[in-house]
Amino acid sequence: MASLPNMTSSFSENAKTVIRPMQYGDLEAVEQLVKEATGTDSNSCSLALIRQFQQLRQWYGLLVFLRWFPNPCQKDFHVYVAEAMQQVRGLIKVSPFNRTRSTWRVEQVLAATDAPTLAKASTMVDVGSGLLRHCFETIWEARTWLLEVNIHQKSTLALYRQNGFQPLAQLTYWAISPQELEKLADHEPDLPNLLPVSNADAQLLYQLDTASMPPLVRQVFDRHIQDFKKGFLRGLLDQVQHWLERTEVVSGYVFEPQRKAAIGYFRLKLCRNGSRTHEAELTVNPAYTCLYPELFSQMARIAQEYPWQSLQLASADYQPEREEYLEKIGAQRIDHTLLMSRSVWHKLREAKPLEQFSEVLQGLQPVRTPIPSRFSWWESLSSKPHTVSRANGHCISEPPSTIAQDAKLPNESPETHN
Predict the structure, then answer these.
(1) Do the domains spanning 9-164 and 172-338 agree at the CATH topology level?
(2) CA 107 to CA 101: how far, in whole Å?
(3) Could you tell me the pLDDT band of residue 272, with boundaries at 50, 70 and 90?
(4) Which residues on adjacent β-strands are paired with residue 147?
């Protein structure tokens, strides 16, 4: 299993709790921990995590073997456990969010719930905070941390707030029923410039992604053109994963020829055996919200070729036009989450501000209060710089008094002075 260097860190000396990378012997305890959390919170992320650990048990030997060879997923699987008294008491799973690995995502933080009822909250905070701090200190590449939490998970939300995470955006997950998809498929989409996605379109998709979100969200995501490209090995691994999950991915984007820009993009993850719902990702330029009916009709037509399932997608609070359209077509709100972020840079408060400049500033203070005085015309005239005149090609400096004596009125003559 690919992970960071094998190191442990202690966050509770009394309980002798250590944090270390997950090992093969921890899989059974980790699965039990995830099942307990799923039964308590009914979290869809926990359900996905159970499937991941079940697949990990099957392919653990292969992952250990591939760790010694360069591959795109070599450093993408990071799971740490908190161990006390030779028992797994907590779990955290993190992964890089972008290709430059400047932003990392906290996918799941779990703590054992077999403690007494009054101590459950404190156990969650202590174990969860220790796991988070371990990741903050160990993963030096991360500049920003990102996570998504259900608004109904009060204890988990309090844990993240206590460790410095702040709200970034509110997300709403929608489900479009098969009946509504059938109605949407009856409409003929007007998309004359709908093109398939390839690596050559990475620049266009990057510009569309940049224009579709607020500056703060864009800064946290920190995506670049490389994030919209897919290498050969990554594409091969994705194909193997889709084959194992019995899914298929269809994507496309709308090209605007006049501005030579992408104005809409969709990605469908369709289930071929009907065991799970279809999933969709949608990005639309805020200036072209009229594309929503056309893109939804296009996605509905594609979904009609697969087993009868609902279509799920998300909308953010900075996308009011999307939410209005989803309500208009009768989509159902199924989940509300909060997108939170935390920077690793902390602002240190100065204990004694500007004390080092006090002596310097004291010397710049005036000795006495300045008193305004009358402005003298003669002093201002005498303080003018000497003028420069040219005589026979040489520069001659003359004082203002000389200039005043030489200056004569036009009607004066030499006899006047005599």
Answers:
(1) yes
(2) 15
(3) very high
(4) 106, 340
Give every CB contact of residue 337 below 8 A, 6+ residues apart in sequence.
148, 149, 150, 151, 170, 171, 173
Within 6-151, residue ranges assigned H as helices are: 27-41, 44-66, 120-138
Beta bridge partners of 282: 266
Query: Which tokens go with 237?
Result: 């691994």
Residue with tokens 């009229």: 290
- CATH domain 172-338 topology: Aminopeptidase (3.40.630)
Q: For residue 251, how many other CB atoms are within 10 A of its CB?
A: 14
Nearest Cα neighbor of 158 from 122, 131, 104, 130 is: 122
pTM passes above 0.90: no
> In the predicted model, is pLDDT for residue 118 greater than 50?
no
Give CA 239 to chain center in angstroms.
Answer: 27
CA-wise closest residue to 285 among 216, 209, 199: 209
Residue 253 three-state SS: strand
Residues 6+ apart with CB under 8 A from 105: 94, 95, 96, 97, 145, 146, 147
Output the CATH code of domain 9-164: 3.40.630.30
Asked if pLDDT for residue 115 goes beyond 70, the answer is no
Tokens matching residue 337: 């989450």
Rounded to an integer, what distance in angstroms lies between the CA atom of residue 282 and that of residue 252?
10
**Cα–Cα distance between 45 and 55 in angstroms, integer?**
15
The answer to whether the beta carbons of residues 173 and 317 sit under 8 Å apart is: no
**pLDDT tens sequence across 338-351:** 999 999 875 444 44
Tokens of 48: 């996905």
Any idea where the domains of the chain sit in the sequence?
9-164, 172-338
How far apart, in Å, are the Cα atoms of 187 and each of 3, 252, 295, 361, 378? 49, 18, 11, 74, 90
Q: Which of 138, 134, 145 is CA-nearest to residue 92? A: 134
- Residues 23, 10: Cα–Cα separation, whole Å: 18
What residue type is assigned to position 336 of the chain? H
SS3 307: coil
Give the integer Cα–Cα distance in Å for 129 and 351. 27
CA-based nearest residue to 109, from 143, 80, 142, 77: 80
CA-only gyration radius of the chain, Å: 35
- Kindly state the tokens that stand for 249: 């991915």
